[in-house]
């Protein structure tokens, strides 16, 4: 099969013919229909992600059709499925308590095992997967495996966002834009923060109530002014100190900060304003991925027409275009995300 392989950090992925994946006994092999290019892929590409080593096939935001099923598989050949990026074992205490996204035995295609920048991908623990609703485009479905599911769990499973509350979103990339769209669907009022005016304008055109350009400074003060005292919930979607502190400092008393952005490299340990946490009686939540049992709540929201996630997708690219998309994450990115839909070139 054709695949894009990381051979050297910060260098173009190598387009190669590699062996087709072996089918796991408890899983399936998918013919990949679409795979998103995510900032988490970039962390591995630049060498910041501790688990991503040369030789890795990236890609963790994928959907596809089952072409082979193992003897203990949940699904069968022909099923169209979407995969979460965390594949939980299903039997450990974390999984049994409903917190599969914290499973200590998790499998991670795209980070530790071969991912979906390829024509086919093996998916163990296939009980984590979910059937794609009819009519949901593969390009949109691919984003459900990471950006959308992560945002959904951050808002509903961690911060318990309520209708009528103010939500601040710091960073309007894939996860941030997902959080904005989902927050509006839940009945919240949303203010978005970014340094790229084009991305702010894009978010406003999709329903954001207000926008703050962080290049102008005083982000927390601006959000507090717009919201009449501070956001009830604030999502940090970049994983850096400046936006983390702005997220914490823009909250009203008893507000909830959700750390969605991945802090790696120099940002793995950062100085944050704990006095603001103390004085405001704030709650800080970490979040990563989504327990797979929560797929029905998200998919039903999409199927009902309450939210349209298609504005997330800015461009469809061939496999050979993945390297350019990864390089683009070195600086401010344009609105929307890229999805690989052609794996032959």
From TrEMBL:
Q: Does the keyword Zinc apply?
A: yes
| Entry cofactors | Zn(2+)
List keywords of the entry alphabetically: Metal-binding, Oxidoreductase, Zinc
InterPro entries, from UniProt?
A: ADH-like_C, ADH-like_N, ADH_Zn_CS, ER, GroES-like_sf, NAD(P)-bd_dom_sf, Zn_alcohol_dh
Q: What broad class of enzyme is this?
A: oxidoreductase
Domain Enoyl reductase (ER), by residue range, is: 10-340
In the Enzyme Commission scheme, what number(s) does this protein have?
Answer: 1.1.1.1
Q: Which CDD domains match?
A: Zn_ADH6 (cd08260)
Q: Which residues form the signal peptide?
A: none
**A Pfam family assignment:** ADH_N
Which Gene Ontology MF annotations are present? Answer: alcohol dehydrogenase (NAD+) activity; zinc ion binding
**Family in the record:** Belongs to the zinc-containing alcohol dehydrogenase family.
Q: What is the protein name stated in its UniProt record?
A: Alcohol dehydrogenase
Instruction: Please give the organism.
Output: Pseudoruegeria aquimaris
Gene field: adhT
């Amino acid at each position: 099969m054709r695949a894009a392989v990381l051979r050297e950090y910060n260098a173009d992925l190598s387009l190669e013919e590699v062996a087709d994946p072996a089918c796991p006994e408890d899983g399936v092999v998918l013919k990949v229909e679409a795979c998103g290019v995510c900032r988490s892929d970039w962390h591995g590409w630049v060498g910041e992600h501790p688990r991503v080593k040369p030789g890795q096939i990236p890609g963790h935001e994928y959907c596809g059709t089952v072409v082979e099923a193992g003897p203990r598989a949940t699904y069968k050949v022909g099923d169209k499925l979407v995969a979460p990026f965390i594949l939980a074992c299903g039997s450990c205490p974390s999984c049994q308590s409903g917190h599969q996204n914290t499973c200590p035995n998790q499998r991670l295609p795209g980070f530790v095992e071969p991912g979906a920048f390829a024509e086919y991908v093996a998916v163990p623990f296939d009980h984590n997967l979910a059937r794609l609703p009819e009519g949901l485009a593969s390009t949109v479905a691919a984003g459900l495996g990471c950006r959308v599911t992560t945002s959904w769990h951050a808002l509903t499973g961690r911060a318990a966002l309520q209708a009528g509350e103010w939500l601040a979103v710091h960073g309007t990339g894939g996860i941030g834009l997902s959080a904005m769209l989902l927050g509006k669907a839940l009945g919240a009022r949303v203010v978005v923060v970014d340094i790229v005016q084009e991305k702010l304008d894009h978010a406003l055109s999709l329903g954001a109530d207000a926008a703050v350009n962080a290049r102008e400074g005083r982000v927390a003060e601006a959000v507090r002014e717009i919201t009449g005292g501070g956001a009830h919930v604030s999502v940090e979607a970049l994983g850096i100190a400046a936006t983390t502190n702005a997220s914490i400092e823009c909250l009203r008393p008893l507000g909830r900060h959700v750390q969605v952005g991945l802090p790696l490299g120099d940002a793995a340990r950062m100085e944050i304003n704990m006095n603001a946490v103390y004085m405001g009686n704030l709650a800080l939540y970490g979040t990563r991925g989504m327990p797979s049992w929560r797929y029905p709540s998200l998919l039903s929201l999409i199927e009902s027409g309450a939210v349209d996630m298609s504005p997330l997708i800015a461009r469809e690219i061939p496999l050979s275009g993945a390297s350019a998309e990864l390089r683009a994450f070195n600086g401010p990115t344009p609105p929307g995300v890229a999805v690989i839909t052609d794996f032959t070139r």
